[in-house]
Amino acid sequence: xxxxxxxxxRISTVVVTRFxxxxxxxxxLGHVLNAIHVWRAAREAPGGVVLLRIEDHDRQRSRKVxxxxxxxxxxxxxxxxxxxxxxxxxRDTIYEDALESLRRQGLVYACACSRSDFEGQRYPGTCRDxxxxxxxxxxxxxxxxxxxxxxxxxxxxxxxxxxxxxxxDVLVRDRDGNWTYQFAVTVDDWAQNVxxxxxxxxxxxxxxxxxxxxRLLGRTEPPAFLHHSLLMKxxxxxxxxxxxxxxxxxxxxxGWTAExxxxxxxxxxxxx
Length: 272
Fold this sequence. Notes:
This protein has helices spanning 29-43, 64-77, 92-104, 163-166, 181-191, 206-217, 248-253, 258-270; strands at residues 16-19, 49-54, 86-87, 108-111, 139-142, 149-153, 157-161, 170-173, 196-200, 224-228, 232-234, 237-238. By secondary structure, it is α/β, with parallel strands linked by helices. The chain has a domain at 8-105 and 180-270: HUPs (Rossmann fold), CATH 3.40.50. The chain has a 3-stranded parallel β-sheet. The chain has a 3-stranded antiparallel β-sheet with strand order 4-5-8. Helix 2 links the parallel strand 2 and strand 3 (86-87). Helix 1 (29-43) crosses helix 8 (258-270) and helix 5 (181-191) crosses helix 6 (206-217).
C-alpha cells in the first residue's frame, strides 16, 4: 500500500507530531524508519513541528546511558527536533493531575493482579469491585465501558476498536509505581498539543484505548493517526532493541555513514 501524504486540512493549520523513543536499549533501524516517517510528515506540512519525547516511564528498565546514546545517534543522523527534550520521568505532577481527574469521576480502582494472573491480553476485571485500598504493591486501573471507538487511520483507512473487549480496564500505574505507556502517552500527546501520531502498525491496537482515555480526560478532538509498516527481520518477527546487527551504534562502528543508513531505509519508507 502506498504512503499517503498527510492531509493537513484534516488535522490543523500546523501539524505537531513527535518522536518518542524509550531509553531501554540503543537506537536501531526500526527506530530510524519511524523517524523518517515522523520528520517527513512534519516537514511536508507548512510549519510542521516535531517534538522529541523520551518515554522513560519504566524506571526499572530505562537507563541514562541509552538516552544519551539515542540523542547522540539522532544528532549524527541529522534528525533535529523543534524544541527541548521532554522526559516522562520529569512529568509526575502532570500525570497525577490527570489521574485525579479520572478519580473524581469514580473511574480509578486499585488492582492486585499481575499479568501472570490472567491469560491473554484482556484484563477480566478481577479487582474491579473489590474496593482495595490504594497503596504500595498495587496497580491502578481505569474502568472502561463498552464504547466502540472509530477512527480513520491516514494509511490503513477506517478502523473500529472496542477497548473493553481488547484489553479490559486500562492499567494506568503498575504495581512498581510506574506510569504505563498507555496512560503517559495519552496525557503527553494532549498536554503537548500533538495532533498527528506517526508510529508503527504494531501499535495500531493501542489507538482505541488511547482515544477513549483521552476522551475521559476531556480531550474531545483526538489526534490523527498514521501507522506505518514495520521493518521485519523475518516474515513474522519485527526488529527489536536486541538486534545488535541492526543497531545504529554497531553500524557506525562498521564505518557506515548517516547518509548510508538513511538511504538504506528511504525506499522502505516510500513503499509503505
